[in-house]
Amino acid sequence: MPRFNPKFDVLRALFARSGNRCAFPGCTHSLINEKNQFIGQVCHIEAASPNGQRFNPNQSDEQRRAYENLVLLCYPHHVETNDAVEYSVERIRNIKYEHESRFEKNPYQIDEAVLHKIVDEMETFWNQVEKLNKLEHSIKEFSVDIDARGSFFDVMSACRKNVQYLQEFFDAFRESEKDIRSNWELHHIGAPNRMNRLRIDLTHLEIKYLEEYLKTHTDDPAARKRLNSLKEEFKEIAQHAAVID
User: Fold this and answer.
1) Angle, helices 221-240/112-134, rounded to nearest 10 degrees
2) What does the CA dihedral 98, 38, 49, 146 come to, rounded to 10 degrees?
3) Closest residue by Cα to residue 2 from 58, 53, 61
4) Within a 13 Å sphere around the CA of 8, how many CA atoms are in the beta-carbon half?
5) How many H helices and E strands in the chain?
6) C-alpha 158: how far from its chain's center?
7) What is the Cα–Cα distance from 52 to 82, expressed in whole angstroms?
C-alpha cells in the first residue's frame, strides 16, 4: 500500500496551530528549538499503513494524510501514544482539538519557503524511485521490491525483520555444519538475499532520516552532501537491485 506524505498546506496549518508545542496534555516540549531545528514528530492518528497503530482500512490515502488525521507530538509522546488501547482514535482527536484551540488566535510562524522546497524535492525523489523500481527495473522478474512511500518506521520494521531472518539462517547453519548440503539454499540463496535486502533497507532508512533532518538543518552542508549521494545510489538500487535465484 502506498504511503503519501502530508501536503504542504497541511503541514503549514499544523505548525500554525501548534503554538510550537507538543500537543500532549501538559507537555511543554518545543517542536522547533532555538536553533530552528525540528525536534518533534508529524504523527498519524489513524495509521498510514496496515501495520501501524489504529489503522482504518476504510480510509482513503488522502484521508490518511489529511489535516484531521495528523497531530504534532514530541518523540516521547509519539511513542507513548502508540499504545492504541490506552490512546484510542477519539482520545487523540480530543487531544489535538483541545491543544489547537489554544493557539488558533496566535498562530506559530515557520519558514514556509524552506519547508516547501524540501517537501517538493523529496516528493520528486520518491516518485523517481517508485518509477525506477516498478516500471523501469532492469531485471523485472527478479527485482527487489522497494516501498518508496514507506515511512521511517516502516523501513525500520523491515530492517528488524531482516535481522531476525538472518539470525534464523545462522541458527540453521550451526545445526547443519556437518552436512552443508541439507541447507544449500540457505547458504547460497537465502542468506545473501537477506543481507542484500538489509543493506538496501539501511540506505532507505538513512535517506528517510536525512529527509526530516534537513527540514530544520538547512545549513548543514555535510548532511546535504550525504543525502545527495544516497539519492543517486538509491535510484541505481531501485532500478537494478535483484535477488539471487
Assistant:
1) 20
2) 170
3) 61
4) 15
5) 9, 2
6) 11
7) 9
58 residue type, one letter: N
3-state SS, residue 70: strand
77 touches 43 (CB < 8 A) = no
Rg over alpha carbons for the chain, rounded to the nearest Å, is 21
Rounded to the nearest 10 degrees, how much is the dihedral formed by the CA atoms of 138, 129, 226, 121? 150
Report residue 58 CA to chain centroid gap.
Answer: 22
Domain boundaries, the chain: 8-101, 112-240
Residue 67 Cα distances to 13, 35, 106, 231, angstroms: 8, 26, 19, 29
Cell of 184: 544449500
Express each pLDDT in 175-204 by its tens digit: 666 555 666 676 677 778 888 888 888 888
Cα 135 from Cα 115, distance rounded (Å): 30
| Contact (CB, 8 A) for 140 and 245 | no
pLDDT tens digit sequence for 27-68: 989 888 777 777 888 899 999 888 788 999 999 888 998 999
**Cα of 131 vs its chain's centroid, Å:** 19
Question: Which triple of cell numbers denotes residue 102?
Answer: 489554544
Question: Of 165, 166, 231, 240, whose CA–CA distance to 204 is shortest?
Answer: 231
Q: Which three cell numbers stand for residue 245?
A: 535465484
CA-CA-CA-CA dihedral for 136, 137, 143, 146, to nearest 10: -60
DSSP bridge partners of 242: 143
